[in-house]
Design a protein that fits this description.
This protein is α+β, with helices and mostly antiparallel strands. The protein is about 35% helix and about 25% strand. It has four domains: about 30 residues; about 170 residues, Penicillin-binding protein 2a (Domain 2) (Alpha-Beta Complex); about 270 residues, Beta-lactamase (3-Layer(aba) Sandwich), CATH 3.40.710.10; about 55 residues, Trypsin Inhibitor V, Chain A (2-Layer Sandwich), CATH 3.30.10. A hairpin with a 6-residue loop joins β11 and β12. The longest helix has about 30 residues. It is elongated, with a radius of gyration of 37 Å.
């Protein structure tokens, strides 16, 4: 038997020791590398595999009027989530959940047995707090309540086409909600908890919470005081005339800020799915394109005055009721015509042949250049989607008849917002502004203004001298001419009526189907508001702008000026009374009178008494204010 020497044994032991030390060194280095160098990365990967996330939606930015009134805001709503691996008895859990959520057991069972780390129950999105409490009271393992929100429009259909609406995921789908979706939506947050491979929560690991970042608030140029008046008058007109549609715009002519905008038919943004797409998808004040009628005569007048082609007071014109142009007969709205008149009376009477004459004096090149300078045939650039451009004749296709009809607002097609912007330029001293409705974006937490829009002057169209003459002419239209029903005692209102024919497919015009309108400005000596109102095919009435649109616009203008704090004036042009006008009388001074004396004092006025005392201590309207016969005076007894 071979014997191993001691030297060989020692060598082998030494080699084994070295190898052992080398192996343990490698293991230690590897452990150190994993522990110290890759430890955080591996821990993060492990946390990712253990983590389950419940999303928390940010609060979508509010939409506010210029005074901070909330027009679109949010309601907090719960949503139900399930973690299937944490559910020990899927059948029992499905039955209990289905009963509370009013969905089928089969569908619920699919949710709770899905191979996913976390599942949202779509039928339990944005449920009521009462329903969420019922779910929570079930105390089911693996069932969680997450926080969500839904869009809320506190005024219903108010300003609906402008605001637009948001979808189930709070994403903007139409109107300002879509245009400013990126700024409004914010960034999502979440609550993260940890569970093992079997779905059991790991109690030794704290939950992580990532706070959502709320969206920015959008403040508008809209004044809810004016908007409320517009909505009220459109509702009354809709009930009175049952029109095919209506449009109203109020704008500050000095900077392009939209104070109010509305149309009919309208809709409730919270229930947009219940109305046809053509109703909510068309914002008529900026989209609708039609022949403007006589409101367009303001542009022809501005061009003629600027080019010094007419003197309103000295130049005269004889209207026989029609005018011959290149073999075509163009009629005035008044059969037999207006006879001899100054050009100021031509404007007051809205005389078509008189404006044909102004068009001829200008010629087609100058007339159409002014039309383009006033912004027609192009978008105004308002910050709303779906704006139309309108339709103008190509200059090389404009003959004598086209020139004549364009001069009094027929044969061209424009949008309401184009007309408002153009007339604002005509009365504000001659500057054409770009209309806008979004004023600023504000951080809701700090109040910091992130973005602010400023008025954009596009060009100088006419001089201040010409603008002053236009204001005077428009004021005379209301006081002495066709716009008399827009007259407001105490405010110098200027304006122009319009009665536009509607074209039909295949050419020609519809019978007894017009768009009647009124363009108003006030105060005429210092314009603070321009109001355009159009009523499409009013029923049961004479379809004239002066009959239908003017009184509605007058109510909007008068009440809006009061709401805006514009003081009344006494230096008005005396109104020319017509046979159907209700006489204006001064409100008597009733303060200090007894009940018996009140009855003897009021013969042509109604009385509304409040209080129980013996004498009058206050009244509305105040003494000396002009009111219509038959109006009501409210008195309060001591």
């Amino acid at each position: 038997m071979k014997r191993v020497s001691n030297v060989t044994v020692r060598k082998r032991l030494a080699i084994s020791l070295v190898l052992g030390i080398l192996i343990f060194t490698i293991i230690d280095i590897r452990l150190g590398y994993v522990q110290f160098y890759k430890g955080d990365w591996l821990t993060g990967k492990a946390r990712d595999s253990w983590s389950r996330e419940i999303p928390f939606e940010p609060e979508r930015g509010k939409i506010l009027d210029r005074n901070g009134v909330e027009l679109a805001t949010n309601q907090s709503t719960p949503t139900v989530f399930v973690v299937p691996r944490q559910i020990t008895d899927p059948a029992a859990t499905s039955e209990k959940l289905a009963a509370v959520l009013n969905i089928s057991v089969e569908k619920t069972y699919k949710y709770v047995t899905t191979r996913a780390s976390m599942v949202r129950i779509n039928e339990a999105r944005k449920i009521s707090y009462e329903k969420a409490k019922e779910v929570r009271d079930l105390n089911l393992k693996g069932v969680y309540i997450g926080e969500d929100s839904k869009r809320y429009y506190p005024f219903g259909s108010y300003l609906s086409h402008v605001l637009g609406f948001a979808g189930i995921d709070n994403q903007g789908l139409m109107g300002l909600e879509l245009s400013y979706d990126e700024e409004l939506k914010g960034e999502k947050g979440s609550v993260q908890f940890f569970s093992d491979a079997k779905g059991k929560r790991m109690g030794d690991m704290a939950d992580d919470y990532e706070e959502p970042v709320d969206g920015l608030d959008l403040r508008l140029t809209i004044d809810t005081n004016v908007q409320t008046i517009v909505e009220r008058e459109l509702d009354i007109a809709e009930a009175t005339y049952n029109p095919d549609g209506m449009i109203a715009i109020a704008m500050n002519p000095n900077n392009g800020e939209i104070l109010a905008m509305s149309s009919r038919p309208n809709f409730d943004p919270a229930n947009f799915r219940h109305v046809p797409q053509e109703i909510y998808n068309r914002n008529l004040p900026i989209w609708s394109t039609y022949e403007p009628g006589s409101t367009f005569k303001i542009i022809t007048l501005a061009a003629a005055l600027e080019e010094e082609e007419v003197d309103l007071y000295k130049d005269t014109f004889h209207d026989s009721g029609h005018v011959e142009v290149a073999g075509s007969t163009l009629h005035c709205w008044k059969r037999g015509g207006h006879g001899s008149q100054t050009f100021l009376e031509v404007v007051q009477n809205s005389c078509n042949p008189g404006f044909v004459e102004l068009g001829e004096r200008l010629g087609k090149e100058r007339l159409f250049q002014y039309i383009k300078d006033f912004g027609f045939g192009q978008k105004t650039g308002i910050d709303l989607q779906g704006e139309g451009k309108g339709i103008l004749f190509n200059l090389d296709r404009v003959g004598p008849v086209e020139q004549a009809t364009t001069a009094f607002g027929q044969g061209v097609a424009v949008t309401p917002i184009q007309q408002v912007a153009a007339v604002s330029a005509a009365v504000n001293g001659g500057t054409l502004y770009q209309p806008y409705i979004a004023k600023e974006l504000v951080d809701p937490n700090t109040g910091e203004v992130v973005m602010r829009k400023t008025p954009q002057a596009k060009k100088k169209v006419i001089s201040e001298k010409t603008s002053k003459q236009i204001r005077e002419a428009l004021e005379s239209v209301v006081a002495q001419g066709t716009g008399g029903k827009a007259f407001v005692d105490g405010y110098r209102v200027g304006g122009k009526t319009g009665t536009a024919q509607k074209s039909k497919a295949g050419g020609g015009y519809l019978e007894n189907n017009h768009i009647v309108s009124f363009m108003g400005v006030a105060p005429a000596n210092d314009p603070q508001i321009v109001v355009y109102l159009a009523v499409d095919n009013p029923k049961g009435t004479i379809q004239f702008g002066g009959v239908v649109a003017a009184p509605i616009a007058g109510e909007i203008i008068g009440d809006s000026l009061q709401a805006m704090g514009v003081p009344k004036q006494k230096d008005q042009i005396e109104k020319k009374m017509k046979w159907d006008d209700i006489p204006l009388i001064e409100a008597p001074d009733l303060v200090g009178l007894t009940k018996q004396e009140l009855q003897q004092k009021l013969y042509t006025l109604n009385l509304e008494i409040s209080g129980e005392g013996g004498k009058v201590v206050s009244q509305a309207p105040e003494p000396g204010v002009k009111i219509k016969e038959g109006s009501t005076i409210r008195v309060h007894l001591e």
